[in-house]
Amino acid sequence: MSDVPPEPFRYEGEVPPGEKRHLRYEIGETYLGDPVEMPVTVVNGEAGGPTVCLVAAVHGDELNGVKVLQEVAAEYDPGELHGTLVCLHVVNVPGYLAQQRDIPIYDQDLNRSFPGRERANTAERMAHEVYRRFVSQCDAVVDFHTSTRNRTTMYHVRADTANEDVVRLAEAFGANVILAGTGDEGSLRSTATRDGIPTITVEMGKAHRFQRPLVEKALGGVESVLAEYGVLPDGDVAAPNWQEVLGGNQEKRWLRADTGGLVEMQWGPTPLVHEGETICTISDHFSTEEHVVDAPFTGILVGILENPVAAPGHPLCHLARIDADTHAEIEREIDAGEFDGYRLLGLRWMGDGEEAE
Question: Which of 49-63, 80-94, 206-220, 333-347 has the lowest mean pLDDT?
């Protein structure tokens, strides 16, 4: 039981202890002067405790997190929480409505605009409202993302592992892979972490769709985080069979096309590749020239190009090195049919039963 007395959660209004409230908070205006409203759920527990914030759709076409937050907001009630749960369902409302990554027309990346400014461009004004009214009041933040269009990403966490408080949060989420790094300047993660609010980014799948297996894993990750912080005293903290922290120039690398052409992925059905194995080939339209891209070291494919055409310099895959113990554990899970890897003949990572385009 928490000894911290419950308190109201205040934004412009307030949500008293013991109440769940769904609201729409104005973060801007349209050309017509109509409000741009962000959907928010605040579940303020009957007992006191930390405030955990969940964030989705900072990039407007990254939708898996939107589904996660919808289900989290419906699942938890004030009577079971020791503390407060804040769900920012869709942060980049204009991008979400247009189903594109950035803020439309201006192509401003909201996730390079935090903490924002009151008198600045559209993205910074929106970031300012979101940050000061909600994020700045929280004790931990989980920011849900997917890969951008034409790519897919393995389920993993990105975190500043030089920060002990962030490590606690990242490990509690329970993903197998943690990519170490401070994050881009102006990102929600780097800004909040710098301000003393441990924040992680969860990368999961691809844009423009819900992928049920990933949503289920993320729901378990949220429960684990709430349990770790005592917000959900009866919850379970995740204990994955293996967890690898990847960081440094030698441990993860983007492989890029050196020639233009048609890309055919050869790896699969899991994202484990061994040194020297062919990841993909790039051929011209006459099938007279072929460029083979091999794995420079043994690792796992964290991100993969899905667009079957490439120009020189285009990213083909994001390969992360693994150590011998992790390699052995992944092999064991593969042999047992437990490894949570890419599906559909090794060409895409899709939810079970999901149809190819």
Answer: 333-347
Neighbours of 132 (CB within 10 A): 14
What is the C-alpha separation between 314 and 327, in angstroms, rounded?
A: 28
Distance between CA 236 and CA 214 in Å, rounded?
Answer: 19
Predicted pLDDT at 341:
55
Dihedral, CA of residue 16, residue 37, residue 76 and residue 225, to nearest 10: -100
Neighbours of 142 (CB within 10 A): 27
Residues 6+ apart with CB under 8 A from 45: 6, 17, 18, 78, 79, 80, 81, 82, 83, 84, 85, 231
Distance CA(221)–CA(179), nearest Å, equals 16
What is the spatial distance between Cα 301 and Cα 280, in angstroms, rounded to a whole number?
12
Verify cis geometry, omega within 30 degrees of 0, for the bond prior to 115. yes
Distance of CA 104 to the CA centre of its chain: 22
114-138 pLDDT tens trace? 999 999 999 999 999 999 999 999 9
pLDDT of residue 137: 97
Q: How does DSSP classify residue 167? A: H
| Mean pLDDT of the region 196-206 | 96
Map residue 149 onto helix, strand or coil. coil
Please state, in angstroms and as integers, the Cα–Cα distance from residue 121 to each residue in 31, 117, 199, following that order: 14, 8, 25
Give the pLDDT score at 346. 36
